[in-house]
Inverse folding.
């Protein structure tokens, strides 16, 4: 079984301003085989690389990303891991792709939404259905166009919590790998078992399942292999947990500490 690849989560959120060009550049310098980032839609159609739907937590700005223009977002200063403002600004997807394209690294690109992306509900017959939240209309098309322009389509896996987003991506670009991302809280609210997440990912047509790392055990990995899915874990910042997951034979470990992952996984 090969060693899992690691992805620098938001470029390395424990080390640098998250989703910043500085973080992406530094992660590439560490030899990260994958960068992970998030994309929201600006009011004028710009593709903003930022995790939250609002600006307050990670920038000196305020309000919803969807209510701001590209120019306004580019002026927003990013906060570092300690909460202090830096000189880094909110990048657009084109900025990151221009940096990433000449490198050997691949991309995990999470398409975000304006509100809660999905809940899972168990019906009277015991089956679980996804209740999907709203999408940004047209965001999937814009993301795929940007990836094509930078020659990154074949090097990108599109992630989403919302199965409707993955369905749209698959309809536009059937060959692009997709990951259904699932949190422990979603499983608990559905009164589900961790291995059931594989069924949810298969129902969404995903090629991968991306799970909060505490959900992953032997049974989950075995179920994923039976379903033909790759397994990713997020967000893993402790050495012992990286080693546990590597031993289970998962495919990708997403971490805020690409410096630690580079050391640990090279020895696994």
């Amino acid at each position: 079984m090969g060693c899992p690849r690691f992805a620098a989560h938001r470029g390395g959120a424990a080390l640098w301003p998250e989703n910043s060009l500085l973080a992406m550049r530094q992660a590439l310098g560490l030899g990260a085989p994958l960068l992970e980032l998030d994309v929201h839609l600006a009011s004028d159609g710009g593709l903003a690389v930022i995790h939250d739907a609002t600006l307050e937590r990670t920038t000196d700005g305020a309000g919803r990303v969807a209510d701001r223009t590209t120019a306004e977002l580019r002026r927003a200063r990013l906060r570092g891991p300690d909460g202090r403002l830096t000189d880094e600004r909110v990048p657009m997807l084109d900025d990151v792709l221009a940096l990433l394209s000449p490198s050997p690294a691949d991309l995990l690109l999470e398409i975000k939404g304006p509100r809660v992306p999905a809940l899972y509900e168990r019906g009277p017959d015991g089956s679980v259905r996804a209740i999907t939240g709203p999408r940004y209309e047209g965001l999937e098309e814009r993301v795929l166009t940007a990836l094509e322009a930078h020659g990154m389509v074949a090097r990108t896996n599109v992630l989403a919590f919302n199965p409707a987003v993955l369905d749209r991506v698959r309809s536009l670009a059937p060959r692009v790998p997709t990951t259904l991302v699932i949190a422990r809280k979603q499983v608990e609210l559905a009164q589900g078992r961790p291995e059931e997440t594989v069924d949810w990912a298969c129902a969404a047509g995903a090629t991968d399942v991306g799970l909060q790392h505490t959900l992953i055990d032997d049974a989950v990995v075995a179920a994923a292999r039976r379903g033909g899915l790759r397994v990713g874990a997020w967000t893993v910042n402790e050495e012992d947990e990286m080693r546990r997951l590597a031993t289970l034979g998962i495919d990708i470990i997403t971490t805020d500490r690409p410096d630690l992952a580079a050391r640990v996984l090279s020895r696994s």
Summary: Residues 139-149 form the longest helix (11 residues). The two ends are 11 Å apart (CA to CA). The chain has a mean pLDDT of 98.
